[in-house]
Structure formats: C-alpha cells, structure tokens
Amino acid sequence: MEREPGFIDAYRAALLAELVAAGVAAETARAAVQAAEATVRGEWGGESHYIPTPNKSVRDRAILQALEQGEDPRQVARKHDVHPSTVRRVRQRRQGSGFGSDDWVL
User: Fold this and answer.
1) At what angle do helices 57-68 and 84-96 cross, to 10 degrees?
2) Virtual CA dihedral for 83, 84, 88, 94, nearest 10 degrees?
3) Rounded to an integer, what distance in angstroms lies between the CA atom of residue 106 and that of residue 97?
4) Contact at 8 Å (CB) between 104 and 94?
5) Residues 19, 33: contact at Cβ < 8 Å?
6) What angle do the packed helices 26-44 and 7-21 form, to 10 degrees?
7) What's the start-to-end Cα distance of the chain, in Å?
8) Per-residue confidence at 94, pLDDT binned at 50, 70, 90?
9) Model pTM?
C-alpha cells in the first residue's frame, strides 16, 4: 500500500538539502538523515505530535526595525519571506493598536 508523503518525508528532504548545502558529502548526509529518522521513529513513532509555529514576535520586531531604518516595505517583505500585507499588518498593529509595547502579549 502506497502512502502519502507526510511530515517525516518533508523533514527528511529538508534535512538532507541543508546538510548537502552545508558541504556534507551527499552519501554521508543520506546516512545521517537515515540515522536521525530511525531515532525519531523509534522514540516517537505511532504518536501524534503538535509542532507549534515559531514565535513571530522576533520576526515582527525585525520588520519594524527595518521599516524604522527607512527600508522599503516591499524589500522588507522579501527579506523576511513574508507577503507585503504582513509587513503592513505588523506596522499597523504597532501604530494603531494602542499597545505601544509587547507587554500586553499573553
């Protein structure tokens, strides 16, 4: 029975690409990825896991800093790999929210 590619497949491909890009020989990288996959499957196989998204406050602060330094919003969006509307939203939240600091974040 053929299965759909899932998280492990995507992670395996990404890890292999990162190792090769970092200069690890392809065969060595493949062996490392297989060992890592075996470890992950052995320790967490059969369980359901939630992987939270990264905290966006660091990204948002970097976006705001770039805008404050006069960078073009479109360039900022490309630099942070986000849509230009995300840059606008981050700026609007800071300017129009009435919450001038990150203290209000729960």
Assistant:
1) 90
2) 60
3) 15
4) no
5) yes
6) 150
7) 46
8) confident
9) 0.49
Tokens 């995300």 correspond to 86
Please tell me the total number of residues recorded for the chain in this structure: 106
Place of tokens 């190792």: 19
Q: Where are the beta strands (DSSP E) in 19-63?
A: none
Collapsing DSSP states into helix, strand and coil, what is residue 87? helix
Under the banding of pLDDT at 50, 70 and 90, the label for residue 58 is: confident
Structure tokens at 35: 């060992």
**Residue 50 phi, psi dihedral angles, 5° rounding:** -100, 130
Using alpha carbons, list the distances in angstroms from residue 79 to 18, 37, 53, 58, 73.
20, 32, 19, 14, 10
In this structure, what is the dihedral angle of CA atoms 76, 79, 82, 87, given to the nearest 10 degrees? Answer: -10
